[in-house]
Amino acid sequence: MQTIPELLAYVGRRMFERRLADMAGGNISVRDGDTIYISPRYSGSKYNWQLNPEQIISGPVDTDDLLANPNFSREGKAHLAVYRTFPDVTGIIHAHPFHILPFCVAERPIEPVLEATQKFGMVPVIKGAPAHGPELAANIVEGLRGKDENIRAQAAAVLMPKHGILVAGKNVMAALDALERIDWNCWCIMAQNLIPPTPIQYIAPGQ
Questions:
Q1: Has residue 127 been placed in a domain?
Q2: pLDDT at position 206, please?
Q3: How far apart are CA 8 and CA 52, in angstroms?
Q4: Is residue 48 within 8 Å of residue 12, measured between CB atoms?
Q5: Is residue 207 situated within a structural domain?
Q6: d(CA 90, CA 41)
Q7: Is residue 90 a contact partner of residue 152, using CB atoms and an 8 Å limit?
Q8: Is the model's pLDDT at 204 over the cut of 80?
Q9: Which of 38, 75, 95, 153 is deepest in the core (most CB within 10 A)?
């Protein structure tokens, strides 16, 4: 059976392989009771998401003790804020996925065009704020408010302008699944411009 640090290392590798994470950064975490486990600082730029379980750091959710750890990801403040606000969230992914980033740059909400993404609803764009700061964390929390049913079903997500996405899931594997679905949903939206318009022909039953 995987330990939580082993699970987080696995998720990071899968994200990087599938272009759901980049070398610029991001972070993944799990809450287990009163403890948060989170990927270390520089997971992308120094380690290329090839993390060892020993590199995963942990600490209490309800205090700011982790902020003093030099390996604590600066964007981990948002993870702490989400866990403290939404009791159903036990896994969080913040990432810079290949097909989602254009929507972050355009500050355009993501419409669920795939059947597989209907459960997440429209992914909203939150108010922008400097990375790593308390204002961004607060804006992420506000963007997730009212999405408790989405979280209990699987996950909810918000876009950070010019930055990336944060997915809050009922567990970290649910968040990873949602992240990839939303990323492919974005590709389908953008790819519509590559498909020449043709009349739609429906086949009647029995034909």
A1: yes
A2: 67
A3: 9
A4: no
A5: no
A6: 20
A7: no
A8: no
A9: 95
